[in-house]
Specification:
The protein is mainly alpha-helical. About 65% of the residues lie in helices and about 5% in strands. The protein has two domains: about 80 residues, Arc Repressor Mutant, subunit A; about 130 residues. It is built from ten helices and four strands. The N and C termini lie far apart (about 45 Å).
Length: about 220
């Protein structure tokens, strides 16, 4: 990686993870945490990131200036690759997959969302049916992630990370469906969604409102 690559990954990784240690930022992109740690310390000298050491969570956090600089770098990366239109075309295929993922997570947490009946996980058949839906979703998500990686190589991390989370789920570690603060399927998916929005310069709230509008 060049120094410019490390700067982009350090800033953009914090955009995706929020408060995080260098190792967690590096894990997003599957890179060595050593250069990320060094870069974050240098970025702190430029007031682009700050260190927070208040338990229970500690790590690095973007400043407003760091968020703006990260946005500038990913936009420049996309435009230098001439990939904006292609990535937007792939992003337009994302909402149906996202709706399916949200439905899986909702069904995992609630037996009857309309009545707000919690899933107490005492019905193995029901839980297996939800896991089966996640497996089916991943079968469609993997080609989508491969398509993104073909447009911009940085997106190549998401397919393997989702596959690893699913492997944990199907091996019995069902907390890897949606538990926060671990690399669960939902956590990785959220980072993928945020990466798409950030790279394309889209606002999450505006996109949510747009997608909620009835089609004519």
């Amino acid at each position: 990686m060049t120094s410019a690559d490390v700067t982009l990954l350090a800033l953009h990784g914090l955009r995706l993870t929020g408060l995080a240690e260098a190792a967690a930022v590096a894990e997003v992109f599957g890179v060595d945490p050593g250069p990320i740690e060094v870069e974050l310390k240098a970025l702190a000298d430029d007031d682009l990131v700050v260190r927070r050491d208040r338990p229970p969570r500690t790590g690095w956090l973007l400043t407003a200036e760091g968020r703006a600089e990260g946005a500038r770098l990913v936009a420049a990366e996309l435009d230098a690759a001439g990939a904006r239109a292609a990535l937007r075309a792939w992003y337009d295929r994302f909402p149906p997959l996202n709706s399916r993922l949200l439905d899986v997570c909702c069904r995992w947490q609630l037996r009857d969302p309309r009545a707000n009946v919690l899933n107490d996980h005492r019905d193995p058949a029901y839980d297996r049916s939800v896991v089966a839906e996640l497996v089916a979703l991943d079968a469609d998500a993997q080609p989508f992630c491969a398509g993104l990686a073909g447009v911009l190589g940085r997106f190549g991390c998401y397919g393997p990370r989702l596959a690893h989370a699913l492997e944990r789920v199907t091996s019995g570690a069902t907390e890897y469906i949606d538990r926060p603060l671990v690399a669960s399927y939902h956590t990785v998916w959220f980072e993928l969604h945020e990466d798409l929005l950030a790279t394309l310069g889209l606002d999450r709230a505006a996109e949510t409102a747009r997608l909620a509008q009835p089609r004519r």
